[in-house]
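Intended use. Records like the one below are meant for learning the mapping from a protein sequence to its folded structure. Do not use them to infer anything beyond what is encoded.
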Amino acid sequence: MQELNELGALEAARPRSRNCNRRNLHNVRLQIPGAREMPAALLIRRTGLALLLAMSGALAFAQAQKAPVYEPQSGQEGKDVVWVPTPQILVDKMLDMAKVTPADFVMDLGSGDGRTVITAAKRGARAMGVEYNPDMVELSKRNAEKEGVAGKASFVKADLFETDFSRASVITMFLLPDINIKLRPKILDLKPGTRIVSNSFNMGDWVADERVVLTPDQGCSTSWCTSLLWIVPGKVAGNYKLPQGELTLKQEFQVLFGTLRTEGKTFALEGKVRGEDITFKAGGKEYHGRMNGKSLELR
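Structure written out for the chain above:
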């Protein structure tokens, strides 16, 4: 009998018309034995709130289970080389040797965690890192943001051999010699005077213009404490008729040799080209000159 009464109470509380509006719903009250009356609309709201809280808890749990922030490991495999971070003191020395200023555009080939690009940006230069590993690219962007230089430091996921270097006035790298040599023709076609700095590894028979080795006393105690600098040489080989005589220049990278014929005599010469500036000695005299387009101005 009690069960019949309870069902009767629930039946009485049911809306009589399918067209009952929201206002009528507020007037409907459910009577559950042992509980006080509750308007149906209030019950729906409370049920919705409970569902919302449950979903929020599930979302918070899912966020707590997210993968940890990416952290690279020294020696990890890359596309062309393994990644080993350049000591910060050597990064500073490399940029010092390249004489980086706010007027420069620096490109770091194989930029890893972004430290060289970020350091250049802190000196006021615009800098770009080229890195094949997308996780490294995102890590570098976060590091630049933390250091407050995101406006000057950018990073792209790209293949070194498909990247345009022509905007760079300074290129930094920590690559193996065989990679350096593969990149060498492209680098030698850059604007004369572009500065190239490498951590430890050379460019084969293109000998560096400067080489500095940091010692443990200077704060560098790893195996990677050598900085090498090259200045892209202008292409100056050729024959020139000048007020000083007839000059024949031959060139191997930045090294010059050839002859100077003056006052009826021919003298062998040896010299060097640094960017567009040349210097050589011939017949006991030292000469200095500069390329101006395809013309050579000698003094």
